[in-house]
């Protein structure tokens, strides 16, 4: 897909991987709509000239409003980068049910709701023949679990399964569905974690994932990458 004038929605894009991806796509000529929940970040990005829609993707009515609002602003929708997500980490013995459900609601239910609405628009592209790209931002935690990451890992494993199911459903409609699995990325997601700060310059940066996403989008429509793992070369 040619990035020039491509109509793209990036969720969870007021910081980190989402914002870096939006910037990279816009640099390539795409028209991009952002989304997020933090009013201060949204206001700052609007000052920069971005079109940002405030929405909690885990709430169905807000997810529907987000996708429809993005499509209305862009005049349609070609690409969805499903990036909204978060994590709460605790060992099984200390796992709180409310926090567990919050992770699943955002990372899994929210991703499904936004993808559903986006796909309903994409199947109408190309005069009804269908055309589009959905990229789900997962994690290597969705490929193998680790201690304390039960809720987060479960959500990303499940998102990978959804990606595979949607891929089989939507390929006949000319819609590509891919799963990107970054390893440790230096973002605000890790908070003040000293392990993340250690050798930060050698770890993956949000711009690295943005580059990978842009490459997937730019691939000719006749082909796509099903899954992409992104690791730092030597983070130690």
Automatic annotation (TrEMBL):
Location of the Ketoreductase domain: 6-192
Source taxon at top rank: Bacteria
Entries under InterPro entries matching the protein: KR_dom, NAD(P)-bd_dom_sf, Sc_DH/Rdtase_CS, SDR_fam
Assigned EC number: 1.1.1.100
GO molecular function, one term: 3-oxoacyl-[acyl-carrier-protein] reductase (NADPH) activity
Keyword set, alphabetical order: Oxidoreductase, Plasmid
UniProt similarity note: Belongs to the short-chain dehydrogenases/reductases (SDR) family.
Protein name (Swiss-Prot/TrEMBL): 3-oxoacyl-(Acyl-carrier-protein) reductase
Organism: Deinococcus proteolyticus (strain ATCC 35074 / DSM 20540 / JCM 6276 / NBRC 101906 / NCIMB 13154 / VKM Ac-1939 / CCM 2703 / MRP)
